[in-house]
């Protein structure tokens, strides 16, 4: 299987690898996928008092496309509001990375990771900060 | 020798080849032996009327002797085929169909090559019954279980000698003895074993043996089937026609390929002992080198009963396909089936009882005739660096370091 240059770039130079403090009330954590299925993504977002995602970090167990999908979304969510971030679609991720059909599930998982991180943040901080 | 050995002077943009169970390069000595049979000695080996036919026939019969000599057979017991896939099909369908009035049962292992399993599935649709025996966690069959599976209706037991994915070598002589005792035929897929480990059809009571050219430094598209004459094994042919190969496989023989297979067998026989020791040494170097650099790596399949040139390793917490992308200067394969439409990892690794998550983290490293110590050292560095980097990206590795058992987590399987 050959990968697109964009996938290779994210795989070789992943953006925003790391972890944020899960105990911080400004941090939302999404952990999606399953080891038995061959991919697990952990995506964390840090939300400012103004409701803007000011930082994002990821760690991923998976193939090159899974790593690239999660690396890409950490770039995309930064600077967005939670509602804007929730609108990121797997199809946009797949298109940007030129994923072949067998790799679409990687982009789906990345979208799920964003949604899970947002849901976790909202659960921890039910009061949405004033807009 | 006129040409360089494959692997030497490897151009910088070619990855190091560590996939010798997938296929092997043709040995230059094999190519040299084949060449005249493409051009001046192009005759049809079945032409009885002129020199062209005779010299081709001589070459084919010499090759038949060369193949037979490697496995202790009589040349008359060797038929040439297009490869091990055809040999396996011919052996299993041929025996099943010939003896179907009295026998309708086949015993095999869940870990056999797809071309055996798929043939068995096909025979099931024709009404044959197949017992697919499990294997132990080391990949070896339990002999008592195998013996217990044999019934009055069993026509043939089919067990491969050396495994393409995990390299384990089954107790072929013991299985042969059991089959002989029960009066059932023993077929063994020796695509990976021939020329790598000593095989003797008489000492091991083998009745049918499948051989492949391209796994033993011969050409692709050629193989052989050993069919015992005493006691005689009868087959219904798959391919009908002019009655070549004693009626078991019609069609004009591919003289150059047959000659190549013969030469490959001669070389394997002459070099097996030394090569086996050399490859075992390289394999140990590779494994010890990786173990010294990486914690949490596990060899899949028995390490003692194993092809000298095979390692299959799970690098825990690193997904195999992602790892293959990271070791792009190596040509290896993975037990993670992430590339295929199904997300199922290798059925072979699952049959050893490996969790799906461990099966997803495996690499198969195949060493062979042209593998050098320098290549092994390069592979150790390259793999160790890639695994270390990917573990630093892996949420599962973090959990492991924090002492969290990933099995204790409620994962949403997708
Ligand atoms: C164990 C085993 N059996 C059969 C085959 C098929 O051999 P061939 O490619 O000669 O048809 C292979 C190779 O893929 C193999 O490894």
TrEMBL record, chain A:
Signal peptide annotation: none
Q: Which InterPro entries match?
A: ISCU, NIF_FeS_clus_asmbl_NifU_N
Q: Which Pfam families match?
A: NifU_N (PF01592)
Q: Which family does it belong to?
A: Belongs to the NifU family.
Q: Cross-referenced NCBIfam families, in alphabetical order?
A: iscU (TIGR01999)
* Cross-referenced PANTHER family: IRON-SULFUR CLUSTER ASSEMBLY ENZYME NIFU HOMOLOG
Protein name in UniProt: Iron-sulfur cluster assembly scaffold protein IscU
Gene source species: mine drainage metagenome
Q: Which gene encodes it?
A: iscU_13
């Amino acid at each position: 299987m050959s990968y697109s240059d964009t996938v290779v770039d994210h795989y070789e130079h992943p953006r925003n690898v790391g972890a944020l403090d899960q105990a911080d009330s400004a941090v939302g954590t999404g952990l999606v996928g399953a080891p038995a299925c061959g991919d697990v993504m952990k995506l964390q977002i840090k939300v400012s008092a103004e409701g803007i995602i000011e930082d994002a970090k990821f760690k991923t167990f998976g193939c090159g496309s899974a790593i690239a999908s999660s690396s890409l979304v950490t770039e995309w969510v930064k600077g967005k509001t939670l509602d804007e971030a929730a609108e990121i679609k797997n199809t946009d991720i797949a298109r940007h990375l030129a994923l072949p059909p067998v790799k679409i599930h990687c982009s789906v998982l990345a979208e799920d990771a964003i949604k899970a991180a947002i849901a976790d943040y909202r659960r921890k901080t039910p009061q949405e900060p004033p807009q | 020798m006129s040409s360089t050995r494959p692997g030497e002077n490897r151009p910088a943009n070619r990855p190091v080849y560590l996939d010798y169970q997938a296929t092997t390069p043709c040995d230059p000595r094999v190519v040299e032996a084949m060449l005249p049979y493409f051009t001046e000695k192009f005759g049809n080996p079945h032409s009885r009327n002129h020199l062209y036919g005779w010299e081709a026939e001589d070459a084919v019969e010499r090759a038949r002797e060369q193949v037979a000599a490697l496995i202790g057979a009589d040349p008359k017991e060797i038929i040439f085929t297009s490869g091990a896939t055809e040999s396996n099909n011919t052996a299993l369908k041929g025996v099943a169909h010939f003896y179907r009035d009295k026998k309708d049962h086949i015993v095999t292992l869940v870990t056999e090559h797809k071309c055996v399993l798929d043939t068995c599935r096909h025979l099931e649709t024709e009404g044959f019954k197949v017992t697919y025996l499990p294997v132990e966690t080391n990949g070896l069959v339990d002999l008592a279980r195998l013996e217990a599976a044999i019934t009055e209706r069993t026509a043939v037991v089919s067990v491969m000698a050396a495994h393409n994915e995990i390299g384990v070598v089954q107790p072929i002589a013991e299985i042969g003895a059991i089959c002989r005792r029960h009066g059932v035929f023993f077929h063994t897929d020796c695509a990976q074993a021939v020329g790598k480990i000593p095989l003797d059809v008489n000492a091991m009571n083998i009745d049918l043996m499948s051989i492949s050219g391209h796994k033993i430094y011969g050409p692709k598209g050629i193989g052989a089937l050993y069919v015992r004459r005493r006691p005689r094994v009868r087959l219904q042919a798959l391919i009908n026609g002019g009655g070549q190969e004693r009626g078991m496989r019609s069609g004009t023989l591919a003289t150059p390929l047959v000659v190549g297979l013969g030469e490959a067998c001669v070389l394997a026989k002459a070099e097996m002992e030394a090569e086996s020791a050399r490859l075992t040494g390289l394999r140990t170097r590779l494994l010890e080198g990786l173990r010294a650099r990486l914690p949490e790596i596990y060899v899949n399949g028995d390490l003692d009963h194993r092809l000298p040139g095979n390692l299959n390793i799970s690098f825990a917490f690193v997904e195999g396909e992602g790892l293959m992308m990271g070791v792009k200067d190596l040509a290896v394969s993975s037990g993670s089936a992430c590339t295929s439409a199904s997300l199922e990892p290798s059925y072979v690794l699952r049959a050893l009882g490996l969790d799906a998550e461990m099966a997803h983290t495996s690499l198969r490293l195949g060493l062979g005739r042209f593998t050098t110590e320098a290549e092994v050292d390069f592979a150790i560095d390259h793999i160790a660096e890639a695994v270390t980097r990917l573990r630093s990206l892996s949420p599962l590795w973090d959990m492991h370091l924090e002492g969290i058992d990933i099995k204790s987590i409620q994962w949403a399987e997708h």
